[in-house]
Write the structure tokens for this entry.
Amino acid sequence: MPANKLSLVLVGLCLALGSLGGCAADQLPSWLKWAAVRKSSSPSTAAPRRAPQAPPPPHVAGTVAEYCRLSGGSDLLVQGYGLVVGLGKNGCAEVPANARDYMLKVLASRGEIGSYKMGLTGASPAQVLRDLDTAVVLVAGRIPPGSPKGARFDMFVSALPQTSTRSLEGGILLPTDLHLALGGLATPGGSSRILGEARGSLFLNPFIDSAKPEEAVKLRSARVPGGGTVLHPRGVSLQLIDRDYARADAIQKRINGRFGKAGQRRLANAINQGSEIAIEIPPDQRNDYVHFLRLLTHLPVRSGPGEWEQQARKIAGAMEMPGVQHEELALVWEAMGPQILPTIQPLYLSSNAHTAYWSAVAGLRLGDDAAGDVIIRFANTVNSPLQRTAIEELGRHPRLVKATSPLRKLLDDPNELVRVSAYEALVERGDDKSVTRIFVGRDPLGADAHSETQFVLDLISSHDRPVIYATQSGLPRIALFGKDMQMARPLFFCAPEDTVTVNANNPSDKVTVFRKIPRSGANSKAFRIEPYVRSLVQTLGNLPYEDAEGEIHGLGVNYSQILGVLQRLCKRGDVPARFVLQPLPGVQDLYQDVMTTGRPDMPSGT
């Protein structure tokens, strides 16, 4: 394939990714829109006077967001060429010349290719690229603003256009360097700085029916949930809309006074002659840095007990007005601190549900446990639009012990989405009595330095209808609502292309399970296991290894292939459970369009 054609594909990919992270005002979250609109409407230096500005909304008036906008507040687009292995005969030997040269250099610099899949040991880089078990792919992702070193993010993988790669199912992406996505960059690398690394098992939608031609083409694209790792922390700053050193100094002092801690480095520093304030995210906020940045922008600039009390009362009045953004108003209260709790507390009893709820959220985050009763009430309110939001909020507060029992009861709620929200809240709270966590796919011998947990298996104490819930973004997780969920017997099941076989001839039999080895097509050792779904998942997902007695354990089946097995077993009734797949976050859905830009060989959605 000509290099210039591949360059056009990469340009399309970069432009599409760029459009997702653009800074047009209508694409920004509400807490950034005001600053963006003000900046975009500022007159040029030739204009003698400013156009009149509409008054800022109450959640912006007098806060940092009225005077500043975030710089470095959009996603950083990264990409790279990578190698996927473990495809059996579904990969391809064709690699565009420019990508081939780059991959040969990368593979030559790494001596561990054969440690990933049997059959590649001792192979030269050129032999690896010619092997149908492998495919060179385009890898793309977005590093969120403020990401600290080591932060994880989802990756998106696509077979190169006009290559014969049939399917990426079952594949593993080897470590891939990620560089800044630049239009027309046909060969990532060179002098470009390495910003991140991608690796891990590929995830394909388990609902794809490969027997249908219009569906089979979707097997050429995949994701790696949480497969990207940030190598360099991303800086964030507040850029003043109008340069004003006095105001910049006041804002930095307010931020340091509200969020700084004794003995800690300053979080905010005015730079560039008062036009910018550099922000350092404190260590204890790095797991929730987006929320921290939201608080910064909602922080009132003026200080003093009287002024803050007046601001708090203004927010209280706005809370009862129709059409306001209650969550944004609550963030202003939270940014102000616990001294304004007396102003918030009366609104816990408001007849306006949104006012009562968001007032209680602000109160609970500021340390008022009495607000927890309000949140618990909303978490138990059937069909309330705030029910799942309230459940998620309770997950943020493990110190609120009285929330544990209501959340456990919600594990048996008739609404499956409520059950999932309660489970995730209990996991966040660290409730190991309700959720037993098992790490699947870890190398038990530590022989492979690149091995890490393939996914998490959560066993949930639940007595209602069995449900299997699986994630497709972030940490790969399979959650079984019902620890003792079993497979029906007798049972005979073959996954597509006989990748996995599950069999039990009699109702009292143990279950036999084995897989087809991708490279050779031969069958693996057959395992006889107890009929529990948890046993099946662990046997499929654990890496094959030989113990001290010479016994082989684990089949090393890919996470998304395991989900495909579970989904089909549920659909057939062999597992009497509902299979629920995590919805993708909205921004993730857009990536499918990104990966198909300029790609007539790929569908528009999964």
